[in-house]
Amino acid sequence: MYLFLYFGWWNFVLNGPLELAIPYFLQRTGSTDTASILLGAMNAGALTGAAAAVWQGHFRYKIRFIFAGSVLTSVMFILLGTGRHTWIMGAAMFLLMLPWP
């Protein structure tokens, strides 16, 4: 039950800012091409995370990976908000979405 509430809280808290990714990228970069590259990095991170989860299959200590993914996501949100360069924001979006699947 606690794990269900934990995931519910993370989805509630993080999906709001991710809905604003397109306007944020457009405002930060000023280019639709760069914003689409950043969104591609975001989707590539989610796809890579899903492929890694399917490929790995079974983790011995799942809770440790869940909490490590939460820490990684939090740090990448901070890096995304403070990053000024496109490559930093792209790497942050890739790593931010990596643990979500």
Q: What does this entry look like structurally?
A:
With 101 residues, the chain is an all-alpha fold. Helix content is 84%, strand content 0%. Helix 2 (21-29) packs across helix 3 and helix 4 (62-82) runs antiparallel to helix 5 (86-97). The longest helix is centred in the middle third of the chain and has 25 residues, at 32-56. The protein is globular. The relative contact order is 0.15. The mean pLDDT is 87.
* Helix/sheet category: mainly alpha
Strand percentage lies at: under 5%
The gyration radius over C-alpha positions equals: 14 Å
Can you tell me the overall shape? globular
Give the helix/strand layout.
Elements: H1 2-19, H2 21-29, H3 32-56, H4 62-82, H5 86-97
Helix pairs in contact: 2-3, 3-5, 4-5
What attributes characterize this protein structure?
mainly alpha; 0% strand
